[in-house]
């Protein structure tokens, strides 16, 4: 799934994985878990993430390749969240999947002003990684609906890091739209609205392409 930070990719990927009963593969979750564990790789990745920088391609490709080797991804499929982020990663992903290929790349389209507002209000569960915000508030303040964990503000959800990520998106991730469009693998979804509304748009678009 493609889109600017704050477009709701994580929330929509979780919903899609539950709807289609497939694995949700989030590179962000994998990186944060490594950082929380304090591994050498995790601490290095944390430096990039806290600065609003993207983790190097070689690291991300290796991380995803290892995850896609697990049996659950081969049985029913998977939803990729946070990967690929540029055309190099897309090309590497295509190589990993030979002789198969991805079914569809979903691009969540949203204006930058809305992204800034969403990220400024975003909170994340420090246990399961679920995201909350203005349009998806928890039932109990600062408590995760799913597991009861504490909701925290991510270290990289400050204005400087957010603007840096948006700049990186324009330079590196935007070309992916053309890359997948040229291969007839792209569907664009309006990401403005409630999570439920956006989910319906995404599911309808996917089901239409699958017919």
- Major sheet summary line: 3 strands, parallel
Rg computed from alpha carbons, rounded to a whole number of angstroms: 16 Å
Percentage of residues in helical conformation: 40-55%
Unreliable stretches (pLDDT < 50, length at least 5) are none
CATH homologous superfamily descriptor:
P-loop containing nucleotide triphosphate hydrolases
What would you say this structure looks like, in words?
This protein is an alpha/beta fold and 211 residues long. It has a single domain, classed as Rossmann fold (3-Layer(aba) Sandwich), CATH 3.40.50. The chain is 53% helix and 13% strand. The chain contains nine helices and eight strands. The strands form three sheets. It has a three-stranded parallel sheet, with helices on both faces.
Describe, in short, the structure shown:
This protein has helices spanning 9-20, 27-37, 40-50, 57-68, 71-75, 87-97, 112-121, 159-182, 195-210; strands at 2-3, 23-26, 78-81, 105-109, 123-125, 131-132, 151-152, 186-190. The chain has 211 residues and is α/β, with parallel strands linked by helices.
Would you spell out the secondary-structure blueprint of this structure?
Layout: E1 2-3, H1 9-20, E2 23-26, H2 27-37, H3 40-50, H4 57-68, H5 71-75, E3 78-81, H6 87-97, E4 105-109, H7 112-121, E5 123-125, E6 131-132, E7 151-152, H8 159-182, E8 186-190, H9 195-210
Parallel strand pairs: 1-4, 2-3, 4-8
Antiparallel strand pairs: 5-6, 5-7
Helix pairs in contact: 1-9, 2-3, 4-6, 7-8
């Amino acid at each position: 799934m493609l889109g600017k930070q704050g477009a709701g990719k994580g929330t929509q990927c979780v919903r899609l994985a539950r709807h289609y009963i497939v694995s949700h593969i989030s590179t962000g979750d994998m990186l944060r878990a490594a950082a929380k564990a304090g591994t050498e790789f995790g601490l290095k990745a944390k430096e990039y993430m806290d600065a609003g920088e993207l983790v190097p391609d070689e690291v991300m490709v290796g991380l995803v390749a290892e995850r896609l080797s697990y049996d659950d991804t081969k049985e029913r499929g998977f939803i990729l969240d946070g990967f690929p982020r540029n055309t190099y990663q897309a090309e590497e992903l295509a190589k990993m999947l030979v002789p198969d290929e991805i079914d569809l790349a979903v691009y969540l389209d949203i204006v930058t002003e809305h992204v800034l507002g969403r990220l400024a209000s975003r909170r994340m569960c420090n246990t399961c990684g679920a995201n909350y915000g203005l349009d998806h508030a928890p039932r109990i303040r600062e408590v995760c609906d799913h597991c009861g964990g504490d909701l925290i503000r991510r270290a990289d959800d400050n204005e400087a890091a957010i603007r840096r990520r948006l700049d990186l998106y324009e330079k590196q991730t935007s070309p992916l739209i053309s890359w997948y469009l040229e291969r007839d693998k792209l569907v664009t979804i309006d990401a403005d609205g409630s999570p439920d509304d956006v989910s319906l748009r995404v599911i309808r678009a996917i089901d239409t392409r699958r017919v």
